[in-house]
Structure formats: structure tokens, C-alpha cells
Amino acid sequence: MTRPVLAANGGYDALRRDFRWRLPARLNMAAQVCDDWVERDPERLAIIDLTHGARRDVSYGDLQTLSLRAEAALHAHGVGQGDRVGVLLSQSPWTAAVHIACWRIGAISVPLFTLFRHDALAVRIEDAGAALVVTDDEGGPLLNGLGVPVLHLSDMPVSVAGRHPVAQTGPEDPAVLIYTSGTTGAPKGALHGHRVLTGHLPGVEISHDRLGQPGDVLWTPADWAWIGGLFDVLMPGLALGVPVVAARLPRFTPEAARDVIRAGTVRNVFFPPTALRMLKASGMALPGLRSVASGGEPLGAEMLDWGKKAFGLTINEFYGQTECNMVASSAASLFAPRPGCIGKPVPGVELAVLGPDGPIDRGEGDIAIRRGAASMFLGYWNRAEATAEKFRGDWMLTGDRGAWEAGYLRFVGREDDVITSAGYRIGPAEIEDCLLRHTAVAAAAVIGVPDAERTERVRAHVVLRDGAEADGEALRDHVRAHLSAHLVPREVRFETALPMTVTGKIIRKELKRRALEGDA
């Protein structure tokens, strides 16, 4: 079993000072999230399954049984150590079981999103060289014509006669291959070792104000094919003995979230920013939660203020990316939030803002992570050159711009999202946050579009609340009044929806592409 990696007591500074990564020579995530718990307490609750309507409680013993059935099927198909296995399943106990089975064998699991269609699946499956893909009735038709062997859940053996030896893996041995969203070209597979789960634990623990308290139950509407669902929620929860809720939401709605929280007795939630914005727009309050964490895009002061009213607590923001996740976080139980900032470096992680000559204390630069963080990837799958380009010496470049403010990390924007206008470098997040404070706005995205005079001009793409009037000048006046004249969008365009990644992030690059193709 895995115990919390952070000391039970002590403030943030002490946790940072005293923390050390403890990675044994032999490490296998199947043991961390399942087998070790079975040896200690097989009846302990692991997953609260709401995927079929009625609640079904799945113990660690039940989860191990499912994983052994999956493992036997994988062995029967010739899967061995180092083979890649696609996992085309949404939230369910079987999803966890298949990943566990892969890791026990020493194979590499490849999470695949069930909303992907033919081309997206084909690119990932082919690039990974998957030996087979495990799926169900929902995913089976999506794999037709892809030429990859398919293992259907209905084909799993009913029982298992014996057990195969567990692969002798260590922290650096490959375990999971997670593809980036592909918003900047073809998707790349980030290959992680068995240390990746341990690497997530400090950030997960503090973002939920010391996750693992009596009565804690964890849930996210984010799909488990995304690193945010798989390693910010599912696997850390299982490792720490915190029950995880599995629920399939065909579409996120505030009402569906409320029902899951009630049925699953949820106390700890990871809500992506988009989900929070939808909750805010609905006016729904969700009292009774102990912690709410969010990551992916900065929330801003307005959303944090709303969170206190809606949840009765402070939303803890966190930061990371597929290549190295959970590296900065807020933690209301350890330090006060600073509006406009993500938080502070997670214990065990060394963050820097890099200027041309290295780390800087003042001014804007490139957010980077020093080698040694346990959640850092091993490299891009079959892309040595791209891996090398990701680093500057010992620093992994995130591709994001940021700055330090009194020890807090402020996110400015993606390096290619920063707008250069009339000599100013403008981060879109601040303007978006301001627009969201206007009562007419449900969602907003800000980009820079080419301008012969200013290099770029600021354009806002806005989705209005139901019944709101499209008044671009009023929104421009709102930004002018709350921020600065140079941050006022010179254009406001009204949209019915904004382009989003599967993880709920706004794809500003798509809006820029449309502008370059002539909609300006």
C-alpha cells in the first residue's frame, strides 16, 4: 500500500525543505494501486461504480480479480513486457483493471479517448505500434478497419486458474504512453516510467488539502484517458486508499455533476475550468465538498470568489502538462491563494522561470522544470530529436510563459499564445478572466491576429449567456474599466461555441488558424 508522501504536519516551507523522493529499486504501479492493498485489506473500498445507474461498490479484492482476468487474456494474446496495449475505455472498474494488468505484465498501457474517431485513433495506434487494443461495445466499432487486434471485455475469461509472475520493473521502466492533444502538430506520445504515479502524489495531496482524510471520496468528470483523469484522480486515489467514483457522463451538465456527487458521497473533486464555468453560469451551489481542485487554465479572481460561495471553500489550482504533471499547486490548507497565480512549486519539484541566461527572479520568461521530478516523462516515443528540443540543459521547457510574484507562479500564457501588440506582450488569460466577470459572458477566448500597424491586434471570441445581448462595445468598455486601455480587444466576435480540446482547454491555435485563412 502507498501512504501519503507528505508529512502529516508542518507548513509549506517545511514540506518543501524536508521532502525527498523515495523510489525503490523495484517499483510497479500494479502493486501501488492494487496488489499491496489486497495483501493488507482486500475488502477495502476501491471504486464506487455508478456507470450502470445503481451504485456498485468494488473492493480492492474485486479490482484485483478483474485485473487478473484481463492479465490472463493479454497473456493469451501474446502480450509481453514492453508491448504497447491500447485502452479504449471510459470511466469504469475495467479501465483501471486493464491498466493494472498491463503494468503487472510489464507492458505499456496506452490510454485512448472514446470520443476519438477513426483518424485520431489510427494515428495514435500506429505511432505506438500497439500489439492490441482493449475495448467494449462503445469502442469496438471505432476500431473497424484499423488493422489492430482487438480484445473485447466480453471475451475476458470468467475465472483464472493460476497467476503469472509479476514483471520485475523499476522506476525508470516504461509503463504508460500518453499522447498529447496534438493542437501543435501531430500528437506525440509522452512515455512515462513506473515512477510517474509516485511523482503525482505530492501535488495531488496538497491540491486536495492533504487528500486521504477520513471519509474522502474522489471524482472527476474528466475522462480517464487524459493524464488529468488517470494520474490526477484514478491512480493516486487507488494508491492512497481513497475510493474513486466511476461515472460516465455523455455530456457534462451541472445537474449530472450534482447527481454523481450525491450518489457517490463525493467529498473531493477535480473540475476542469470549463466545468467550473458551466457550474458558475448555472448558479448551482454544491455544498458538502471538502476540496475542489482545478487545472488546465488559470481561473482568475472572479472564479475563485465564486468558488467560495458555491462550494464554501477555496478552489486549489494546479499546473502541469502531459510530459511532467502536477508541478505547481495552490493549497488553501498551507498558504493563502494569490489571485492571478497558479500557486507554488510542489514539494520535490524545482521550478524556474528562465530568461536568456538562465533562471530569473523578476520579469517574464519560460516556465521550466529541473530534471529529477518523478512525474517527468522518459521522453517522446520514437522521437529523440523532439525530446532533445524539449530541454535546455537540465531544464525541461513547458512551452509556457510565466513570472514569479512573491514566491507564487503566475501563468502568462502558452509561448505561442502571447500577443505582441504595439510593443506590448499581452497574455490572453488576464483579458479572458476580465471578460468572464461581465454578466453577459459565458465563455471567452482571446487571441492575437495579424495587424500591419501593431504586429497583432487583440481579438476576443465570446459566447454569451442565454438571453444576453451582443454588445461588443460594452465588453470593450468593461475591459478598459477593469484592466487597461492597451488590453482592450480591438475586435469582439460572438460565437455559439469555442473550439476545445478533449480535456476542456480552449484551442486558441484553431481560432488563429481561422483568422489566417481569411475570417479576419
From TrEMBL:
Domain called AMP-dependent synthetase/ligase: residue spans: 35-381
Boundaries of every AMP-binding enzyme C-terminal domain copy: 430-505
Alphabetically ordered keywords of this record: ATP-binding, Ligase, Nucleotide-binding
InterPro entries found in the cross-reference section: AMP-bd_C (IPR025110), AMP-bd_C_sf (IPR045851), AMP-binding_CS (IPR020845), AMP-dep_synth/lig_dom (IPR000873), ANL_N_sf (IPR042099), Mitochondrial_ACSM (IPR051087)
Gene3D superfamilies in alphabetical order: 3.30.300.30, N-terminal domain of ligase-like
Organism superkingdom: Bacteria
One Gene Ontology biological process: acyl-CoA metabolic process
GO terms, molecular function: ATP binding; CoA-ligase activity; fatty acid ligase activity; fatty-acyl-CoA synthase activity
Homology family: Belongs to the ATP-dependent AMP-binding enzyme family.
Name of the protein described by the UniProt record: AMP-dependent synthetase
Species per Swiss-Prot/TrEMBL record: Pararhodobacter marinus
